[in-house]
Amino acid sequence: MKKKNINTFELELSRLQEISNLLDNDELDLEKALSLYEEGVELSRSCIQTLKEAEVRITEIKKKLDNIKTEDEEFLE
Description:
- The protein is about 85% helix and about 0% strand.
- It is built from two helices and no strands.
- The two termini are about 40 Å apart.
């Protein structure tokens, strides 16, 4: 699994917001707007992948916690 620094995720998310704000500007020429849009799509894809990886990690951690609880319950019986 590819690991990404949380700072990278935060920076990508911040840049995505910046791009969104820039695209709201009516004064952008078409080529610049398309370039920003393309960058935004790539950043969005990257952020979504990072969030999916985080979800997998959280699920794994919860499974470990559930196993510990089960072992504790069996021990107490």
